[in-house]
């Protein structure tokens, strides 16, 4: 018997989207001088007009943040700062459904993920850091040092609210004030967060949000009044920022791209592993810096894993992100879809075998079927470059030494996964792998207490946990 799923759409009535938004500077809404459209990538419907931040807007935000740092925020005790963070966390929980629906509309990710992952984890980051605000001396960070002051934060479009939480919560807990720029295609939940700051009574200027594009980000990076930059995004832009910051006194943390190896040893529990592979690459449409985008299978079980993986992929439901049955939503933008298409075409041209799940894609919006490439070699672009989409490159190995060689043969070093029933295998492999986070018999698990970050071209510094706190204190980390 085949069970069909009836549509189960989440109502969007809980969300109120303004036709035009300004910037949030010094606790107030400031009109923008020009605007661009924010669209729903699942339908191409225009959701709102977002202000394009200029150098003058950034300057006003930096001045507000400096004033707030000098006059209010740096004067508060950790206990008082913690109260605001707790308040923000609780309001985010109270408004969780609103945040989840808005994130799904603006980003294209399935409501199940925004509701069950992005929003609860974002609130958890504020709760976690609220707890640290008055206990920094117990966090193992150098508490004789002071907060940096004004922090410029630039975030990407793949986890818009969650990346905001990763940045804003530790900055405020340690006593900094912030100027944050969300990504061009996904500003709406950051603007809703600004309303939460107002609702929480956060002192004016402690959090400032300037929307815009790369030029706005660049104005933040190059503003002399900023003491630290925290960036998440592509390695390419990360390098530009590192160059711009190098001759200054600014501190810098970078969370960049990845090409995570998901390694399956011959003794792994196959059915559980297949679920983990699916979660590793198809969660959030593969728009995940730590995605398990290179599957490296021991030859003895490769055929069985691939057969079961294809069967499982045919069950992935692609479609309306607001439908609670949907597993894979829309690609975030036409540009990202073009990039995925370009790299997958290169994979075919270079000789890898392409297989896509049998699914019907909607006609409007930006969509890509879950896809795997077999017969991939280390030389293929799809094994080396970040695709940032629902595309898995499959390689094989015979010996443990070979898989470590292959897994580490990448300019990145953000994440890895190991599937094996043997603890000794897992412990041995984790010691050899050059990756900031390594999951064993699971994938894509996140917790505010766990530091996250990369080696090599995946970035500098850690976010989350006690390590993430030190990045927001002078002298504790560069
Ligand atoms: P970018 O690195 O271009 O953008 C990240 C953020 O930086 C955005 O807010 C962006 O603004 C801003 N920005 C762009 N140019 C500059 C600049 N010169 N100076 C300062 N800030 C700037 O990533 P994209 O979002 O365009 O995605 C491109 C690729 O990056 C993806 O395909 C993926 O491979 C990778 N990526 C990695 C992520 C990760 O978490 N590691 C997250 C997102 C992307 P705007 O959005 O307005 O361009």
Please characterize this protein's 3D structure.
The chain folds into two domains: 12-256 and 456-474, Aldehyde Dehydrogenase, Chain A, domain 1, CATH 3.40.605.10; 261-440, Aldehyde Dehydrogenase, Chain A, domain 2. α4 packs parallel to α5 (160-173). The protein has a seven-stranded mixed beta sheet, sandwiched between helices. It has helices spanning 55-71, 78-94, 96-107, 111-132, 160-173, 188-199, 214-221, 235-245, 270-282, 299-313, 334-349, 381-384, 400-408, 423-432, 465-470; strands spanning 23-25, 28-30, 35-39, 46-51, 150-154, 177-181, 207-209, 228-232, 251-255, 261-264, 294-298, 353-356, 371-374, 391-397, 415-419, 437-440, 459-460. It is 39% helix and 16% strand. It is globular and about 65 Å long. The mean pLDDT is 96. β5, α5 and β6 form a beta-alpha-beta unit. The structure holds NADPH dihydro-nicotinamide-adenine-dinucleotide phosphate. Residues 154-158, 181, 183-184, 213-214, 217-218, 221, 232-234, 237, 240-241, 255-257, 289, 336, 339, 386, 388 line the site of NADPH dihydro-nicotinamide-adenine-dinucleotide phosphate. NADPH dihydro-nicotinamide-adenine-dinucleotide phosphate is lined by residues 154-158, 181, 183-184, 213-214, 217-218, 221, 232-234, 237, 240-241, 255-257, 289, 336, 339, 386, 388.
